[in-house]
Write a structure and sequence with these properties.
Layout (H helix, E strand, L loop, with lengths): L1 H7 L3 H17 L10 H11 L6 E7 L5 H17 L3 E6 L5 H18 L1 H14 L6 H14 L7 E6 L3 H7 L34 E6 L3 H13 L3 E5 L4 H9 L6 E3 H12 L4 H37 L1
Parallel strand pairs: 1-2, 1-4, 2-3, 4-5, 5-6
């Protein structure tokens, strides 16, 4: 009886400690979980995977630090996928505090790609030096550039960050006419026309796919202003609470794919064959959910027992 009363009135700090333990242990210890890929995530993956090399995709960072645990693994995974397929990335943001998060995600993907292909790049440069000892020659510079194009991802060539601009709806509509009307410079205040990958990119006709990573209504705005008006193909990566709002757009084919929550990020990483934050975070999220359910059930049972005992006494 005393134990039951103690459990029903347990100090919340003990619950916080239990939650800390069940989240920390799966992060420190690799706990493999079976991954079943849903059709919406598979559709998003296919939308990226089927694009021809050299295509441009636009990533819209429509979240901030509060949604980092769910959205960051998604944008890193999509960026990795894009680079592995030879796609080029344009980064924009409609939430100013989210812009550096998106930049960090794309740079992380570029760093991983460059690290993975470093030996191949070094071997190509070594062979070029053997063939063309004069490193100032046109031939050597051309071989070096070809190696960089194949084995490196560089800012301005393979990805750009156009930064944040206020006026969400007007920008979404206006970019269908000319991107430079709103983004004449990138986030470093560099003229867009001086960036090699932007020379032939002017509007939605030059963007093969748009991916919005959001924690709110931004995806719906993209569908209304870019999708419905200009026929822009769109996929989305959103936090768990936003997922139900977007299913009607999937059913109507206005949305080509959906990555939902940390689970969606885990599924995308599974398709990509890469273990990122989504894969590492799912066991911790699962054990946390199990603890919450267990405490709710236990508390309900003990409260029920206490109510029966108090009625018998009265």
């Amino acid at each position: 009886m005393k134990f039951i009363r103690w459990v029903t009135n347990i100090d919340r700090r003990i619950i916080f400690l239990l939650m800390f333990v069940v989240v920390l242990v799966p992060i420190l210890i690799d706990i493999p979980l079976e991954t079943d890929v849903g059709p919406t995530v598979e559709a998003a993956y296919t939308a990226v995977d089927t694009l021809p090399p050299g295509s441009v995709i636009m990533l819209s960072v429509d979240y901030d630090a509060t949604s980092y645990p769910e959205c960051h693994p998604m944008i890193v995974a999509v960026s990795n996928h894009a680079f592995s397929k030879g796609l080029r990335i344009i980064l924009v943001a409609h939430i100013p505090t989210g812009l550096p998060l998106g930049q960090a995600a794309v740079e992380e993907a570029a760093f991983e790609y460059n690290k993975l292909h470093k030996q191949e790049y070094d071997a190509a440069i070594k062979q070029a030096i053997t063939t063309y000892p004069d490193t100032s020659s046109v031939e050597f510079r051309q071989v070096r550039e070809d190696a960089a194009v194949k084995y490196k991802k560089r800012y301005g060539v393979d990805y750009v960050n156009l930064g944040f601009r206020p006026g969400l709806a007007s920008i979404m509509v206006g970019m269908g006419r000319e991107i430079r009307d709103f983004y004449a410079q990138d986030y470093k205040s560099t003229d867009v026309d001086s960036l090699p990958m932007m020379k032939r990119v002017h509007n939605y006709e030059d963007i093969a796919l748009l991916a919005s990573f959001a924690h709110g209504k931004q995806v719906e705005y993209w569908i209304q202003y870019a999708g419905a008006r200009y026929g822009q193909k769109i996929i989305a990566g959103v936090t768990g609470v936003v997922i139900p709002d977007l299913y009607p757009f999937l059913q109507s084919k206005q949305l080509s794919g959906l990555i939902g929550g940390l689970k969606g990020a885990n599924e995308y990483e599974f398709l990509l064959g890469r273990k990122g934050l989504g894969t590492k975070g799912m066991p911790a999220q699962s054990t946390a959910h199990i603890l919450v359910i267990f405490l709710i059930v236990l508390g309900t049972i003990f409260e029920f027992i206490l109510s029966i005992l108090s009625r018998r006494k009265s």
